[in-house]
Amino acid sequence: MLAGIRTVELRKVYTSPPPVAAGGGGFSFRAPGGKSKQPKPQITALDGISLEIRPGEIFCLLGPNGAGKSTTVGILTTRVRPTSGQAFIGEHDVWLNQVAVKRLIGVVGQRPNLDFNLTAREILTFHGAYFGLPHHERMKRAEALLERFKLTDRADQMVRGFSGGMMQRLSIARAMVHDPQVLFLDEPSAGLDPQTRLLLWEIVREYNQTGKTILLTTHNMEEADTLCQRLAIIDHGRVIALGTPRELKASVPGGFLLQLRFGLHSGEFLERLQKLSGVREVRVTDGVGADVYADRGGSLIPEVAHLASASGVELHDVHISEPSLENLFLHHTGRSLRE
Amino acid sequence: MNWKTFLAILARDAHVARRNVVALLFQTFLQPLMFVFIFGRVMVGSGYMPPSYKSLLLPGIMAICMVGTGIWAVAMPVIAEFQFTHEIEDRLLAPMDISWLAVEKVVAGTLQSLAAGLMVIPAAWLLLRPGVDLRVPHPLLFAAVALLVALFSATGGLALGCSMQQTHIGLMFSLIVAPMIFFGCTYYPWSALEKFPIMQKAVLVNPLVYASEGLRATLVPQFPHLPLLVVLAVLVIFNLLLFTAGLRWFYGKAVS
Questions:
Q1: Which one of A55, A171, B1, B200 has the fewest CB atoms closer than 10 angstroms to its CB?
Q2: Which fold has domain A5-15+43-249?
Q3: Contact, B231 vs B166, CB < 8 A?
Q4: ipTM of this complex
Q5: Which of B90, B99, B251 to mutate to test the interface with A (most CBs of A within 10 A)?
């Protein structure tokens, strides 16, 4: 049975007790008549996320830290209760039908969570047992996964001494033991060396080819670009762009981005920049810089330099980037993904 | 309810306990048996304690072993697995309602506590003999009390483990477990507190009092003890309260 993922207007507001400082540790002054308790601080992690991920798709949530990626995964994997909205895996409402959903999903968490009291092989076989696999079947699958993830020579050792990369590989293998229809990978390549990252990508594609749906979160644009069939860029708990990597990159005005830094701000210079052929949009970033979205990159530089000297503006730095998801994020939020 | 998953998770706990069996044995029995040896053997042998103290001491030691084992077996993994290693996450994603994972922890803790209780009797008897007068007039009643004590230790472990921060583990033992043992009528019967009327009333809030007195009433009924009916009723109430609270707190930790 193929299963997709659907969310409808998902919202999540975290409430936590106020920190000691806010609660009045030490001296504090109360406003007259201030009998009411201080309201709990509310953090809106998700602010109405609606997504439709098709069965058999590799879908990526791209966004900076704190954008709401992990909260979305948490809700879809039964570990976070949505404040409002609904989430579905296949036809099952995640919150109302948790056990059925848990049978359909495999989850690789953001932080390592391997069972330190077991060996690598036992981690896989016990996981299989939790999902009711018969003994010979779970032994067979564990063996195959250990082989696939290049862990056979450490199979019977406790995982406490494993390197970060080995733990990550084992976490992914564990999530695959019960052959889930939907695989969640939360920041799977964080901390992996390039070689292991390539192995991971290969395995994800291979798993996807058997018809499985894969949702992965990342703040790595290269990963999103090469691995995902479609992606959503999220920031501050909202989807700010959605589509295939190609569509999204094409949606940046002009595609090319020239980041200019100059000594003095000059209105005339900016106005004349806007009129250059191929320039779609000029945004002043701060007093001494501008982002120019344009149809062409390098060929625009001599004209920009000429214009600068004609306007008496001294260029300090010019950076050209080709159409990319990074530019798209910058265009929507005014911030870099890496910040 | 998905029994296959429940039993598989129980099997995992049994597997881990088997792997750590030597450490577990030392942790459970070394201190209580040293106590038995010094107070039951050395002090009685040298005439500082009456010979009957041997029989009086044994049920109390059994209560300490059972309660200590159950609390440790449930509270420590809950604290570490949620806050430190996060290794419980894999089991939280097993196809079973999350609350059943808490039930599984209680079952595992109860079984370990019962095993500790049953093992300490022959061990203490070997250390103390001759002169231990265990009567056990109603084995079934003894079994019921032992089961309730084991359940109390495990539900108590669940409630403690779910309400304690990792940094407060030391405090948990020095502020909660140690006073519970010393004021729990483990080394003396409740009736011995007659000369301390305020303390005698105050210790009644301590569930360990009912555990020791209950074991005393069913193992060595020749000594004065609290009425068995009171013991059974109070243990049942404590078990229900701790289990309900533990279950709610466990869920609160598992789902944000």
A1: B1
A2: Rossmann fold (3.40.50)
A3: no
A4: 0.89
A5: B90
